[in-house]
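Justification of resources, computational component.

The compute hours requested in this renewal are based largely on the per-chain cost of generating structure records like the one below. Each record pairs the submitted sequence with a full structure-token output. That output is archived, and it is also reused by downstream analysis tasks.
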Amino acid sequence: MNTTPAAEEPQERTVDLASLKVLAHPLRVQILERLSRHGAQTASSLAEVLGESSGATSYHLRQLAKHNFVREVAGKGTARERWWERPPGALNIPGRDLADDPAGREALRLVNREFEQLRGTALTDFMTHGIEELPAEWIGASSINTHHLHMTVEEMEESSRALEEATKRILAPYRADKRKPPENSRAVEVHLNSFPLVDGYRRDHS
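The structure output for this chain reads:
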């Protein structure tokens, strides 16, 4: 009899207003991002890397769990030292819908700002220190690209969706929920950005 558990299929989740308000705390965004990047952690290990007390990280983990942003790892840990993970699947935050509510708009600002700061810090750290601290083959395997274009909103929407679908297809075999990470693997972050330049919009409409 095969006792190997079936791989869990990632489920894309659309975040509602109530859940967004719960997520709208800097430490909660940091916890969620840490679990996304490095896998399951305990409140103590999160506290150590985030410079917080284990009581604080434990509290925020429980609040995140109430809205299914995180969950306990089944069969791992003890009553005193629980392990937490982020369920597989993308989070979809519908900014256009949530921005109609003043509280939603403020929560959206905070969550977006925290996520972007974390992404920016990771990229800056790589650009500043990667060449000194990473093996040459990892530097060579990396790719940082910027493309400057002029598009209509319809063209940008079409290209954004195509890029998103292609990225999901290309990266699917490497997801943690699909396989056990190889021993020689490292935590890797892939960014895909597609957005109109706000300063260009301001200039054209001034």
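The radius of gyration is 19 Å. The mean pLDDT is 87.
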